[in-house]
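Could you help me review a protein record that somebody else here produced? This is what I was given.
***
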Amino acid sequence: MASLFKFSNILRALKQPNYGLYAAGNIISLIGFWMRKVGVGWLTWELTGSGAWLGIIAFADMFPVVVFAPVAGAITDRWEPVKVIKLAQVLIIAHGLALYFLTAGDIITIELLLVLELALGFFSALDQPARLAIIPLLVGRRDLSAAVAIGSVSFNTAQFIGPAVAGAIILFAGVAGTFAANAAAYMLFLVIMFRV
């Protein structure tokens, strides 16, 4: 009975038009996020064959989030979270397209990839607090716990689906294809955010 009640809470949260749109866009962009993660790791290995470089690139992607997230949280508090999310999506899309064109054109180097991943870390740091801050604005207090649960399920589901999709894309379209798919996923999320 308790699990049925919780499921009905989740359905009620998803039926709220703005939150339902956001939740759909969020999972799509998270799948794109995990596709890019796999693509960047694959590309790093192709460029260097070095485990050390894999660690350096992974560090470059996450370190700015740790450093810049408090500042990004303050920015989100002063601006509307929707505006911050839209700005972050534009920056992340530009990053994905840059990775796609540089990789497809065989221009990418490990040093350039390092710079791009550092930049993405700052863009992600801007994005994450805004995504957390928007949820209470889209659902009522009664549905907040259900919306948080949906966010957790979305993240874990994307973590499972994204790498599998990335593997298929790499197999059929090469590693550059994962970056194009990543940019497309974030573009779709951006379009959805203009309707929220």
About this structure: Residues 167 and 190 are 25 Å apart (CA to CA). Helices lie at 2-15, 17-48, 51-78, 81-104, 110-138, 144-173, 175-193.
